Amino acid sequence: MTSEFAVELRDVVKRFVTPEGNEIAAVDHVTMQIKNGEFFSMLGSSGCGKTTSLRMIAGFEWTTEGEVYIEGNPMGHTPPFQRKVNTVFQSYALFQHMTVFQNIAFGLEMEGAKEDEIKQRVGRALEMVQLTGMERRKPKQLSGGQQQRVAVARALVKTPDVLLLDEPLGALDLKLRKEMQLELKALQQQLGITFIYVTHDQEEALTMSDRIAVMSNGRVQQIGTPVEIYERPSNKFVADFIGESNFLDGQIKSLSKDEAQVFIPALNTELRGIPISQGLVKGEDVVVSIRPEKIRITEKNAKNDNFFKAKVTNTVYIGADTHVYTESQGVKIKVLEQNHISRLDTSSFYTVGQEVGLVLMPENTLVLKKV
Amino acid sequence: MLKRLRENKSAQGTLLALPTTFWMFILLIIPLILTAIVSFGKRSPDGNVIYTFSLDNYIRLIGISSDCPAGQTTCFNPLYVQILWRSLTLAFNSTVLVIMLAYPLAYFIARSHPNRRTTFLFMVLIPLWTNFVIRVYAWMMLLRKEGAINAVLGWVAHLLHINFVPLEMLYTPGAVLVGMVYEFLPFMILPIYTSLEKIDNSLYEAAADLGANPFRTFLRVTLPLSMPGVVAGTILVFIPVMGTFIVSDLLGGKQVILIGNLIQRQFLDARDPAFGSASSLILMVMTLIVTYFYTRKFGFGEEIVAA
Fold first, then answer.
1. Least packed by Cβ within 10 Å: which of A281, A366, B59, B281?
2. Which residues contact A225 (CB under 8 A, 6 or more apart)?
3. Using a CB-CB distance cutoff of 8 angstroms, which residues of chain A are in contact with residue B211?
4. Residue B307 confidence (pLDDT)
5. Mean pLDDT of chain B
């Protein structure tokens, strides 16, 4: 390994011309550094630029501006067949006219590997994805999950520096998808190969990734570990996209070194002792974000900091949790309570119209820039 | 009755196939049986058929002749065998040439921008709007001694101060080949295009991703996946080329007589329907044999992907 980063995107822009003749930037000044041996995910909804970014790493698209580096080498217009990366396609893209063995052997034949070596390596790859014995089947004779494994084996048999995966589990049913998530993660750890994984499924990204790049509108919104992205989203988009959040408009009343007091006009309440990120100034309009599971429901007359009264408008029982919908002076706030007590006794639920108190724990409350 | 039909899928199928079956019976099966009966007959002196059971027509076709020099009762006359062989090789050569011309064009259309594909396919079909015979006549205009091709060549030669003798192109085997290739090209382009167009772009990307350069991608992925189109096109081209007589009649003159011409002349000029019928059946059997072996090797143009 020559470089610290397996893959690096430096200020990459990709513009397309739409059929209507407009120019759009599918990828808009994206910079990211993916470390060797890392499981890195690009997460975002469709059209956010994640797949285009992946395709530029693979070499199927060329950058309009900026540069893609693989193992420290600028890729320029290097065609895909000369890059040491391999791709697992969303549609699997298996060769239907070849058997499983021929599919996996294809990449090795292109390298000019000898017959004995091909046999041995294909055998090992099939073992790795638990498909030994399926050599002679045609792709059409396999289930979706098995086809997916063939696609993974076909890419991994080339022992690439980096494996690119474009929503590889998208076509599988939920149960199989969860199994494959864990399997892929285990495979990545066992092989120590860098995985770059594109998905729109946040749970999938959180489950598997070492780091995640959250993307939207062709831009990177935040890069961080799953915990960082969930617990410390850097803007409103990320807080909203990953998990759920309640958002309250506020204004910074006063600032100390690492804490702020924020006035929430709609609730006529001041929140104290809230940890702040950089770049905020006194008097600035901000958004306060708090996750539903990080709000505590108390007595309506409790004496607490960061406390306000609210009225329960609905409760929804969904097994592991109960969602409590409340409203306080026209502001809707969702609270999530874990059902660690039995709910068989209906009196354990809050009733609609009941007045309660809500406490926002300052360490779990975030102040985000408006925009 | 109607209710029972609604539940019976196989009865529905039979009913739907009935009109076609009826017309096929009237227009194909009956004439074929009549042809077979006539083929065992004999020519009467006034050009009618005497119905007997005689293998004379078939014996004549394979070259055993009774019309011999003095002193011999039977001798070998290779005329009809030569005609059969000429038809077979011409059909083979035409089909190969058509594939070589049609494949690159179909590939080009299939890989062009979707908006333009319709235009290109439309252009492929435009010649079919003109009558088959008129299109062959157009080639006569191009190929004859005073034709367009010789005019252009003469003009170029004149510019370069080279002495030019107009080329004899019309009424040669080459002219027939050109005509056949031209007439049947669209029937090869369309099926090849269809099978190329079905290949998902991600397969090309996957091949490149696995280290195949464009040439090897073509050999290992594109070509095998487009074979159903080539097979279908071959059947659509080979069979009509075997039987067509207009192209060889107009562009080949008396030089290039094919089995189609032979059949036509037996019915019209020679007034020997019995021998004409025997020739027709021989043509059919030959075509069936070739098609049988070909499709047994390459399939019938259906997906080569076994389910």
1. A281
2. A209, A210, A211, A212
3. 81, 107, 110-111, 158
4. 32
5. 90
Sequence ranges of the domains in chain B: 81-298
Kindly report the number of other CB atoms within 10 A of residue B7's CB atom: 8
Beta strands A162-166; A194-199: pairing state = parallel
CB contact under 8 A, A86 and B205: no
Per-residue burial over A196-216, b = 16 or more CB atoms within 10 Å of its CB, e = otherwise: bbbbbebebbbebbbbbbbbb
Q: What is the pLDDT of residue B300?
A: 65
DSSP structural state of residue B129: G
Whether domain A5-237 has CATH 3.40.50.300: yes
Q: How many CA atoms lie within 13 A of B167 on its CB side?
A: 16
What percent of chain A shows pLDDT beyond 70?
Answer: 99
B-chain residues near A107 (CB < 8 A)? 210-211
- Cβ separation B205–A81 shorter than 8 A: no
Residue A2: the pLDDT is 61
The DSSP bridge partners found for residue A212 are A41, A224
On chain A, the residues whose CB falls within 8 A of the CB of B224 are 97
Q: Which position has the token pair 């010789």?
A: B150
Q: Give CA separation, B96 vs A181, A296, B177, in Å.
A: 51, 80, 11
From the candidates A60, A95, A100, A137, which should be mutated to test the interface with B, based on the most B CB atoms within 10 A?
A: A95
Q: Which CATH architecture has domain A244-369?
A: Beta Barrel (2.40)
Rg (CA), chain B: 25
Alpha helices in B130-272 (DSSP H): 132-143, 148-159, 173-197, 201-209, 214-217, 223-243, 246-252, 259-268
Tens-digit pLDDT profile for residues A182-225: 999 999 999 999 999 999 999 999 999 999 999 999 999 999 99
Measured on CA atoms in the order B115, B117, B120, B122, is the torsion positive or negative? negative
CA geometry: angle at A188 spanning A242 and A13, to 5°? 55
Give the residue among A100, A69, A99 at the shortest CA–CA distance from A85: A69
Q: Helix A144-156 and helix A115-128: axis angle, to 10°?
A: 130
Q: Do A80 and B203 touch (CB under 8 A)?
A: no
Tell me whether residues A86 and B209 touch, CB distance under 8 A.
Answer: yes
Mean pLDDT along residues A329-352? 86
Q: Which amino acid is at B157?
A: A
Confidence band of A371 (pLDDT split at 50, 70, 90): low
Q: Distance between CA B291 and CA A250 in Å, rounded?
A: 81
Q: How far is residue B8 CA from its own chain's centroid?
A: 40
Q: Smallest Cα–Cα separation from B195: which of B281, B67, B98, B102?
A: B102
User: For B202, which of A89, A97, A140 is closest by C-beta distance?
Assistant: A89
CB B279, CB B61: distance < 8 Å: yes
